[in-house]
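subagent[fold] <- orchestrator: predict structure for attached chain, return tokens only, no commentary.
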Amino acid sequence: MVITRRWLFVLGLAALIVMPGCEGLLGDGGGAPRRTLDTARGGYTIAVDGYAEVYHEQYAQQQMASYAAQSGLTGFWVNTRGDKSYVCFGRYGSADDPAIERDMQRLRAAADAGRIQTRMMTVLPYEVTGGGAAEVYHMDRAHPETIYTLLISVYDDRYSGDPRVAAEREAAAWRAQDQEAYYYHSGHESAVLIGAYYHGAFVQKRDAMNRVSNQMHPVIVRLRQELGVVQMKRNGEPMFDEAGGVVESELIRVPGR
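subagent[fold] -> orchestrator:
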């Protein structure tokens, strides 16, 4: 068998998990309780594949999309840690969360049925801060020349759960459908965005009075219709204005650009 950098990475990861004193599935090796983390900042996840090549993040993204398409499961995401990227499934508050075993059974069933071929199935801690989990989908990761994006959903502090986690999960779900989705956190609100557009996002229209207005490019209009995101959502519910009219998703400037 040819040992590639990918396999060396997987073997090294396995060694890290079983070494006494290393933080991982086995805790600190001395029977100490496992950490319970806020999943908005970090937590635990199931790593199913890993890459350490030069383009590790791109490879992991491609593999994540393949897993999602072949398995029919939603919950895959990419966790990039420095020069390594993991294809992961799920986010959990503690390493002994009962949902972990349930999701592992779902992944094993997909693997046994031949729908996916995982290289590992290991519980790992992750952190969002410092360029870790879910940062792959942050709007800051879009092409630096991007000017506009389509705002389709917002979560705020009235949401029953954590708005940050909800926005990240929705962006990941869109990514699993091969859509270029992002999230963005600002104060008490978290947004879900689709697409990264340049100057051509708007086209000029003239009315009968020769007045000029900017309208969404027909391609983006069609995209909204095909995806069913013409109407904006807040906290998972369709939005209406004070008169009962539909609040539509809109092209906005990329935050900070």
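orchestrator: received. Logging for downstream: The chain has two domains: 5-127, 138-253. Residues 5-127 form a domain with the Alpha-Beta Plaits fold (CATH 3.30.70.1070).
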